[in-house]
Amino acid sequence: MAARGLPNAAFEVSMQPSGTVSPALATVGVLSDLRYSARSLARTPGLAATVVLTIAFGIGSNAAVHGFVRGLLTRNMPFPNSAGLVSVVGADTDRAGPVSYDDYLSIKSSGDVFEWVGAARESQGTIVIDGRAATVAVAAVTAELAVLLQLSLDDRVVVSRRPVHNELRPRAGTVRINGVDARLGAAAPEWLEGLYLGRPIDIWMPWTEATIHDAGRSHRSVWVIARLREGVPTDRAEAVINAGRRDAGLIRVFPYSGLTPDMTYGLSRIGTLLSAAAIAVFLIACANVACLLLSRASARSHETAVRVALGARRGWLARQLLSDSVLISVAGGAFGMLLAVWTTNIVPLLFFDRDAAQLVFEPDVVGIIAVSFVSVTITSACGLLPLFEIRHDRPSAILRRESAGPSTSMRRLRMFLVVAQVALCCVLVIATGLLFENFRSALLTSAGRPLATTILATMESRAGATPSDTAASGIAFFHAIEDAARAVPGVTPLAWVATLPGGLPTWQPFEVEPRQASIREELMDVALFTPASLAHIRVPPVAGRLFGGQDTVQECRVAIVNEAAAREVFDGKAVGRSIDDSSGQSVQIVGVVASHRAEGANDLSRPTIYYYANQGGIRAAVAGPERFRIPTPLQASSAVLNTNVVSSGYFDAVGWTLADGRLYSAELLRGCRVGLVNEEAAEHYFRGDAVGAAVIDQAGRRTEIIGVVRSVPLRAFQRRIEPSIYFPMAQDFLRGMTLILATPEVSEALLTDLHRRLEAVPGRGPAPVVVRTLESHLAGPRWHRHGSQPR
């Protein structure tokens, strides 16, 4: 008769001589062992549940974290063979980016480390499809890269899915890109967003000599992707490429994963942090499981001794204890996988919309198997401890000892295990929370971290709504807003901006006038523009504008020319040009007028320039021909820039540094129109030499570039920084602006008080005041409590 609680089949199996057990009976014995283990664990549901959940947290957290890290750093690229693909980039002190065309040629000739080397140049362009125009991102790619990206280019262009979804579906076989007609090829693959994540491309076109000519050979605007030869590591490729290079021109080689090199480097550090935290969580979970199973083994020592006394063999005991561990491990692993699946949906909810959109879960099968194996091994080892405990004891001695109850040392050990169990559970919970918090904080960049408690106040001035409301009154309103904000304790106004970082770009086409220019001298008749001049010219002007109230003594000195001057002196492009008169003073051409064929003191069919009498300092009569010095650009080109209007303190407020030139000053803002561009614009459109160059918009307004800023995204997943130009708020007044405010701590009461004070400032337009944090802005468009409209 079997002992009470001992499975009959298993007991019978244990009584059989060695080697006489049939397979059928062995199978029955295993199933009986598992049923007995299930009943045994059911008698202690609290302990069993704790062990299972601990294993689940250990396996599930590791599976989830490694899955997200793998999804961020090793995205599955839909290429026929992605092994060996690398990004070859130029590296300087704080960032990695494109290389120059000369560097690209040098990389192509770098020995036998690459199977092939491809290149792409990204830019903004104007596309006209079926009569509809749009500003789009254009990429010119070499044949090698076109094959990799599965683009059928030949002599055609390929339209990506993005413009198609934006209702720019082409119906004809041609499109017009930057004024040049091109034939359409097959559509780009659906999976292809761009060369890198966050840098979407709308139009793909073949690489031509014009691409090199537009970009220039020496400035860095070429992205290089290559495939390493089999067996060649990235460090060897770097060594070959950098042979003979100086520190300023070093080249880096990164595995290509679809992420920009800067993002790859940043996320690799995040991945290391997450992996270390996940391993720590798993080790804590393993230690917790060990403590729980050791406590259970100590409690079952009397039961084990009874079984030994009744004749149970140690082999059967080992199998029984192993079945307990198997049940616990399988249950914990199942719940761990379920937890990992839930985590893939829960974790994105902890982040902002724009960050969550970049989270991709790619299960790491090898990692999950390794973690599960370690968990099963630890669980099995701890579960078999009772067997080792009685190895050298006599059953009668154990029974006598257990009848007297646990010894003092055993009681202390069990108490220690219980305390350790509770403590490690607390550590596990805290570590899991810190894991997610560190992941979230790691998404902030060096520029975004100091702005964690920044407040944004968006409002509209009434100035400019009617002709009587001038820009001066609007500027006065914004100054009053700053004074009202200072009245709130702990709030400091920093700067004004029209479009916040991370907002939708505002594209505008410009004509680019490079800084390098030759000087030639031309003769033009000089005339003073008075009301009597209207008898000799026609209105409206042929191009540009006439003089107006904005042309005062304090403003930039301006002039208009007749058609003869525009044609003969300026080659048909006069509006926006800056010239020097015989005294060395600069004057900008703002308009072109047509002349009446009427008799007068002067022959107005000759090249003539008109000065504005209201600007003062100009001769009151025509002085005859005068010699002017006219810069002739070496090569004028077009650009499409994201435009923004900012106050002078904006760049310091967002942590952007000056890369070249100078920032706005009161002296500069009293003269002609000036602006700053970011490094992306300087590289794309000014060949890296933007200071001293100029851009002319479609209205003929000229802007001289006085500086270049190094723009940095505020969050790791923020979309790429577009080529941008920044106009000073003092010269380009906009009715709607956003005030950036600093505060040591954000609270609901602070936001409410600030909103109330700003609404009370007179001169506000009809749009409501919207007050929110920078964090909520980066979270994406949504409704805010302190204001009635989304931004």
Would you mind describing this structure in some detail?
The strands form 4 sheets. Strands 1, 2, 3, 4, 5, 6, 7, 8, 9 and 10 form a 10-stranded mixed β-sheet that branches. Strands 14, 15, 16, 17, 18, 19 and 20 form a 7-stranded mixed β-sheet that branches. The chain has about 800 residues and is of the alpha+beta class. The longest helix has about 40 residues, at about 260-300. Strand 1 (about 85-90) and strand 2 form a beta hairpin. Mean pLDDT is about 75; it is low at about 1-20, about 600 and about 780-790. It contains 23 helices and 28 strands.
How much beta, percentage-wise?
Answer: 15-25%
Spatial gap, N to C terminus: 80 Å
Helix proportion: 25-40%
Largest sheet: 10 strands, mixed
Structural class: alpha+beta
Strands, total number: 28
Q: Tell me, briefly, the overall form.
A: elongated
Provide a count of the helices.
23
| Model regions low in confidence, pLDDT < 50 over at least 5 residues | 1-21, 598-602, 781-791
Average of per-residue pLDDT values = 75
Gyration radius, in Å: 37 Å
Oligomer: single chain
